[in-house]
Amino acid sequence: MDQLPIFMNLRDKDCLVVGGGAVAARKADLMRAAGARVTVVAPAVSGETRRMVDDGRLAWHEAEFADAMVAGNRLVIAATDETQVNRAVFAACECRGIPVNVADQPELCSFILPGIVDRSPVTIAVSTGGRSPVLARLMRARLETLIPASFGRLANLLGRYRQAAKDRIHGLETRKRFWEDVIDGPIGNLVLSGKEREAEGQLAQLLTDKAAPTDSGEVYLIGAGPGDPDLLTFRALRLLQKADVVVYDRLVAPAIVDLARREAERIYVGKRAGHHSCSQEDISGLLRDLAAQGKRVARLKGGDPFIFGRGGEEIEVLAAAGLPFQVVPGITAASGCAAYAGIPLTHRDHAQSVRFVTGHRRGDELDLDWKNLAESRDTLVFYMSLGSARQICDQLIAHGMARGGKAALIERGTTDNQRVYTGTLTTLPNKITAAESPSLLIVGEVTQLHDSLGWFHGRGDIPTVFPDSEPYLAKGAA
Ligand SMILES: C[S@@+](CC[C@H](N)C(=O)[O-])C[C@H]1O[C@@H](n2cnc3c(N)ncnc32)[C@H](O)[C@@H]1O
């Protein structure tokens, strides 16, 4: 972080603006909006500054700037065309420890004025650290459209009941949870849809109800997609940002884990091929224990939790313990990788159905119904098949599939490092000897469409999978 964003209380504080033109007027107006008493110092004032002086909104000190004038002010802003004056203002403030901003001269600023989205009392500040005011303006404009004006009213309502909630609900965590449920639930929705009085009635009722709200944990089993963070669903994002703890796999991109709240605890329980260092029982037990402690747990899994994800086993343990959970579907590797490789999994001319198959071996064995697979006209997608790709191709040929049958392997699909290898059942195994995990094998005529439909060639900005790291179990967890 280049600068620390802070919000300053300027109510009834003296502030100084040096300069009497249009920029000075804008800056003075901003400080006045925050309740400051603003004086403008300039030999002459014009335009809006003149109007503000005339109608008493600004005090005008009609003089050239002198160092001593900054004393006693909470903030000082210089907005003159004269470099020497701007420098003098900066120096005078710096040696007295007074925060100073010189318009359009970042090197002469001890603070900057961010782009502001004003939904008072909610205020959002946007800064690019002085790099690009235009980008800051565009971001601000986007936020303006995203954040309804009613957010201000919601903040006022919550403020009115803050003390009542403190008196009624004991424990910081429980209170935090209570407010999150109010904001995220029907009461928040009522305010946002303009029914403030009804919302207030419900909130007051909630705080006078006999039973005080208590902590209850919950697990969100979230599909994080195959790699590109943009493929996360809105629901996944919302729950991720509610979680107290994030439990994640190796196939979940770091950028997705970063979307969790800053304070959320992060627990890595990834497995690496061949190293089941954190057993499924450990993971399921960990989720159960965390939820039983009252924590909201986001269990992030690569792709979709119910497709070769063992998500079912994890929630079985929770169901047995009577703990609440929700399941958020994710984009499974087959859909994500095929889409990013330009391989339609079904196609009127090539394949009317698709099958997801595990290529995971138990020992040396790959126990699949080869005859059935070889005879089908489905597109076949083999998960966990990197180590067994040659065996799969050989078996399909041995059971009747054409040696020239088309196939593709997608390595690290949807990420910046995506690579697509295409060939036939005979040639592909030799082309992928250096391919890395995670990889997905697709067998079927549709794979030849990659040559004409491939569109994604990496964007250079998506961190891929996690580097190897030690699995970690929370203290006291199963
Ligand atoms: C244990 S399975 C988990 C599948 C996951 N639940 C899903 O729905 O995608 C892991 C396998 O998914 C495939 N996979 C996951 N992410 C992938 C990616 N970005 N690129 C290629 N294959 C991927 C690989 O075959 C990998 O071995």
Task: Give a short summary of the structure.
By secondary structure, the protein is α/β, with parallel strands linked by helices.
Overall description:
By secondary structure, the chain is of the alpha/beta class. Helices cover 35% and strands 17% of the residues. Mean pLDDT is 89; it is low at 460-478. A 5-stranded parallel sheet has the order 3-2-1-4-5, with helices on both faces. The chain folds into 4 domains: 14-113, Rossmann fold (3-Layer(aba) Sandwich), CATH 3.40.50.720; 150-208; 218-332, Tetrapyrrole methylase, N-terminal domain (Cobalt-precorrin-4 Transmethylase, domain 1, 3-Layer(aba) Sandwich); 343-453, Tetrapyrrole methylase, C-terminal domain (Methyltransferase, Cobalt-precorrin-4 Transmethylase, Domain 2). The chain has 18 helices and 17 strands. The chain has helices at residues 22-33, 47-54, 83-96, 133-146, 150-160, 162-168, 172-184, 186-192, 196-208, 234-240, 254-257, 280-292, 311-320, 333-341, 370-375, 389-398, 428-431, 450-453, and strands at 14-18, 37-42, 59-62, 75-78, 100-102, 115-119, 122-126, 218-223, 245-248, 265-268, 296-301, 325-328, 354-358, 379-383, 406-411, 419-424, 439-443. Helix 8 runs antiparallel to helix 9. The two termini are 38 Å apart. The structure holds S-adenosylmethionine. S-adenosylmethionine is lined by residues 226-227, 251, 301-304, 307-309, 332-333, 337, 383-384, 410, 412-415, 438-440.
